[in-house]
Amino acid sequence: MTATIPTGPLANLRDLGGIAVEGGAVRGRTLFRADDAALIDDPGARALVADGVELIIDLRSPEEVAYTGRGVLAGYPPVHLPLPLTREAAGPTVLALMDRLASAAQPERAMGGWYAEQLRARAGAVVRGIKAIADTPGAVLFHCAAGKDRTGVFAAAVLSVLGADRSDIVADYIRTEDNLGPLLARVAAARPGAGTDADLLTRLPPVLLRAPRGAMEAMLALLDADGGVVEVLTRAGLTGGTVRRLQEKLVS
């Protein structure tokens, strides 16, 4: 059964339009990233439809989807594509990650290491998401819970495939820092077993409450050892045809 959680405007919704990539820039109002779209209200859902959003890529774990469902967007036209980048929202794996980040001598590098592991482990799912973006005529929105970690990894993957400079990928990631205040209450309410806002703040390692530059820089640097983000995705099935269709759709 899904939980009843208050809806409202998304706290970390933004258009990737204008980011410089190979051959130009990302076309406006074609690709959006966000926090948990299941928490959007009716006016927000109508606005997404008016913006031409036809596909919503859901990067949350099955546990999170079961807990909050799809929200009001279930009654609107956009297709829902579940592509979980993590298996759970709470449990032994998450607790182990929290311990790892809390005890790390270099927390930002440790978080970047976690991001790199996510991309390696779920490269096939990321490729499916990129193909879905390329094959959807209208706009696409992708999201997780906060729109920071899993969404940041997916955004970095898409921008890498489009040929964005590393500095621009990092700049997009750290923009979430401006939205972290409003995000905390929403994540606390929508995360199974998270408890209150105060409880969330005391339980999470401080680095997880930020979108630090060093985390994304570390992810990209660590993946260089595998040939880079695009090479990791290519080995997972990304084709030249998909890249061309993605460029044709998103780049102007």
Please report the number of helical segments.
Answer: 12
Would you identify the CATH architecture? Alpha-Beta Complex
Overall number of structural domains: 1
Give the helices and strands as they follow along the chain: EEEEHEHEHHHEHHHHHHH
Indicate the percent of residues in helices.
40-55%
CATH topology: Protein-Tyrosine Phosphatase, Chain A
* Stretches with pLDDT under 50, minimum 5 residues: 194-198
Calculate the terminal CA-CA distance, rounded to whole Å: 43 Å
Average per-residue pLDDT, rounded, comes to 92
Strand order of the largest sheet: 1-4-7-5-6
Question: Nearest-angstrom radius of gyration?
Answer: 17 Å
> How many strands, which pairing sense, and closed or not: the largest β-sheet?
5 strands, mixed
Total number of strands: 7
Strand content: 5-15%
CATH superfamily caption: Protein tyrosine phosphatase superfamily
Given helix and strand content, the structural type is alpha/beta
Task: Give the class-level CATH name.
Answer: Alpha Beta
Shape: globular
What's the oligomerization state? single chain
Walk me through what this model shows.
With 252 residues, the protein is an alpha/beta fold. It has one domain (14-250): Protein tyrosine phosphatase superfamily (Protein-Tyrosine Phosphatase, Chain A), CATH 3.90.190.10. 50% of the residues lie in helices and 10% in strands. It has twelve helices and seven strands. The chain has helices at 42-50, 62-68, 92-103, 107-121, 123-135, 150-161, 166-174, 180-190, 197-203, 213-224, 229-235, 240-250; strands spanning 14-15, 20-21, 24-25, 31-34, 53-58, 79-82, 139-143. It has a five-stranded mixed sheet. Strands 2-3 form a two-stranded antiparallel ribbon. Helix 8 packs across helix 9 (197-203). The longest helix has 15 residues, at 107-121. The model is unreliable at 194-198 (pLDDT under 50).
